[in-house]
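Hi R.,

Here's the chain you asked about this morning:
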Amino acid sequence: MSASLIPPLIDENVQTLNQLNQLLGSVSTQDYQRPLGAKATQTLGKHVRHIIEHYQTLLDACAASPESATFDYEQRQREAVLETQPSCAQSRVEALQAGLSALAAMPHNTPLTLSYPVETGVAISEMNNALPLPTTLGRELAFLTSHSIHHMALLGLLCAQLDIVLPTHFGVHPSTLRYWAQQRFAS
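And the predicted structure, written out as tokens:
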């Protein structure tokens, strides 16, 4: 199949990251790091870092082996600076957007392998049981949009605790935005 199916998937991810960048450009470092939630274990920064590192995992795999990448979303860098410094996270988001755009020439069905660790009842030190799951670039881009939006919805709840006002579409999946637009058109 042609590569023409990848640009809309990339565009959804770039738009999602644009929303994230808007938050990063408006949040103070103090609020970004502030412990929130019932157990004070959540921060805006932790969710942002988590989102960024998932994108970085896929991009690194595609750069290393563009036609047969193997990757594991659980084996991320977990860079503390991304969860403590919104300006660093913002710079990384911009780099991710450029990296995503560079994937535009790849076919959507480019084969990839997701290495997915599973428990086997063996001691963790002896555990090397990862399922090699066949996937494609298009499928992983669709996953990243949904994964990011999920965390952004959580970010929205955390921002509400801090009285940070976000755009009404923040953390809303592109499919929901399309549905809302169809409903307005149908009215």
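The domain at 3-186 is CATH 1.20.120.450 (Four Helix Bundle (Hemerythrin (Met), subunit A)).

Let me know if you need anything else.
M.
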